[in-house]
Structure formats: C-alpha cells, structure tokens
Write a structure and sequence with these properties.
Length: about 300
C-alpha cells in the first residue's frame, strides 16, 4: 500500500489521517519556524515515508502551551494510534502525559524533555540527546581555545526551557574546573534561541562597552546572531571565540567562514527518525525504554568536514 503522509499546510491547521490508515500518528511541534526543529520534523517525515501504512497529522503549537494541549486533545478525540510531542515547555507536560496515557495511546516526547523523565508512566518515552553532554563539550572546547584564561559572555535560551537551563549549568560546571577557572563570565542573558534577539543583545553589550574574549551561546542561531552584530561593529572574528550548539546548516556555514569556532552536533534528523520508530513500536504493543539517547558530538574546524551535507 502506498505510504500516506499528511502534513499541516498552514500554522494551526491539523489534517486528520484517513480512517483506513493502519497506523495514524499525531505530531505536535513547538514551532515550525525554528531551523533545528524543521530538521527534526524532516526526520519524522522521512521515517514515515520509509514505513508502510503510516499517516501523520502534524501541528504547529506556535510556542503556545495551551494550544499544544488542545492539539493533543484533538489527536485523542480523533483516535490516533500514537502521539509524538515536541513540548513547548517541559514543566507543562504533566497534563499532556495524563490525558494521553489515560486514553491508552502511546506517547513519545522528542528533543524537549518532560519535567521528570523518570516519572513517565508506562506507555510514554522520551527520545533526545543528553543535555549534560552538550554544554559540557562546548565549554571544554572554549576553555581549551582560550587556554583557561579570559572573559566570556553567555547567551541563554528561554529561561523556562530545560535544555537552556542545563546547557547553562554545564557552562558553569566546566568553568568551575581548575584548568578553566581563569575564565570569568561577565554577562549572561536570554536571547530565546533567536538570531534576531541575539543580534540585539550583542549590539546592546557592545554599545555598553562590554569586553570579552568568548561568546558561549546555548544554540547556533544565537551564536550566528552574535556574529552578525560583531561583524556589523567591525570586530575581527579571529580575536574572539564563538561557540554554539546544534551544528545547524547556518552554524556550519559560519564555521566554514571562520566565524564560529565551536558547535556541538545534535542529530535532529536521527531524533525524529527514532521518535517515529519508537511510536510505531509502541503502537504495535512493544515497550521501549523510558529514555532513548541520541549522542551529541563536538564540532570544530578540525573535523567539520565530517558534518557537512
């Protein structure tokens, strides 16, 4: 039978899989306009295309917790066989978990973890990468490039986001090591994963005369925004170490241009593929592990060729 893949054609518009599809999977994403999550969703769709008799109903939560819960409730009402959630806010997932598991539908969280992975009930799993590794790998590289001495500024993701909080904790944990203790963080603010907000934040720092040797950003989008602001101010990018996370296409382009010095590869495609694989296994009666890790990998100019394309 020809595989049927249904995708939302516009924000906020759910397309329900036809009743005769063997397996119907509802997918709700934090936001369609996030470059990293676009890659992740592509992995879900690619895996669906490889499987037989799968239909996807894909929704954009548009960064709205209440809207995402409503989308999940609609999936339940429409009788889908499994639900994949990329949660807007991990702390808001309790209501989602309760509603989906009470309906007896398999639930897979992907990329953004729920508040307490260990508390997930039977019938729910999390697929993602261990954030303890991401900020740790990133900051270890920065420490090495600075020789353990210097001044750093930190750009955080959303203050309520688990990944942002963990990545920032990782930064401070590494800088607390004796070999890195000579690096001082003089500014630390959120730019909400956004390139535009990061550009504005960096412009503000430069206008105030903040001096630094390194920019440590929780993701590549913010690192690229910081780079754009520094270039606009006439910075010589060889004089500053810039670090991001995710190894997005734009991040890798910045590294090729000699502007981004460090990133950490988070395999968004594989997270999406494994999320759908896990949902299908659960829909078929299997019981996967509660947490399934997709490893992070550090990327620098020395090994960037391994991550292009």
């Amino acid at each position: 039978m020809t595989t049927r893949i249904l995708a939302a054609l516009a924000f906020g518009t759910a397309l329900v899989a036809p009743a005769h599809a063997d397996t119907q999977v509802g997918v709700t994403m934090t936001a369609f306009d996030n470059p990293f999550l676009t890659i992740l969703l592509g992995g879900i769709r690619a895996e669906a295309a490889r499987q037989e008799d799968v239909s996807l109903a894909v929704e954009d939560a548009e960064l709205d917790v209440a809207q995402q819960l409503s989308q999940v409730q609609n999936f339940i009402a429409n009788g889908v066989d499994a639900i994949i959630v990329n949660p807007v806010d991990g702390d808001s997932t309790m209501a989602i978990t309760q509603a989906v598991t009470a309906a007896g539908i398999p639930l897979v969280y992907v990329n953004h973890p729920p508040a307490d992975i260990d508390a997930l009930p039977e019938g729910a799993s999390f697929v993602g990468s261990n954030e303890i590794d991401s900020g740790t790998m990133q900051t270890e590289q920065v420490c090495e490039m600075l020789g353990g001495e210097g001044i750093a500024v930190v750009m955080m993701g959303p203050l309520e986001n688990h990944a942002a909080l963990t990545r920032t904790e990782d930064i401070h944990d590494v800088l607390g090591r004796p070999e890195c203790a000579g690096i001082e963080v003089v500014e630390e603010q959120s730019a909400n994963w956004s390139r535009v907000e990061a550009q504005d934040l960096m412009t503000n720092w430069l206008t105030r005369g903040v001096a630094f040797d390194a920019v440590i950003a929780n993701n590549d989008e913010m690192a690229v925004g910081a780079i754009q602001a520094m270039k606009a101010a006439g910075f010589d990018m060889e004089d500053v170490v810039v670090a991001g996370i995710d190894a997005t296409p734009d991040g890798l382009l910045a590294m090729q241009a000699g502007e981004l010095d460090v990133t950490v590869y988070q395999n968004a495609t594989r997270q999406g593929e494994v999320a759908l694989e896990t949902a299908m296994r659960m829909a078929n009666g299997e019981s996967p592990e509660r947490r399934i890790w997709i490893p992070f990998e550090p990327v620098t100019p020395d090994n960037i060729q391994d991550y292009l394309n």
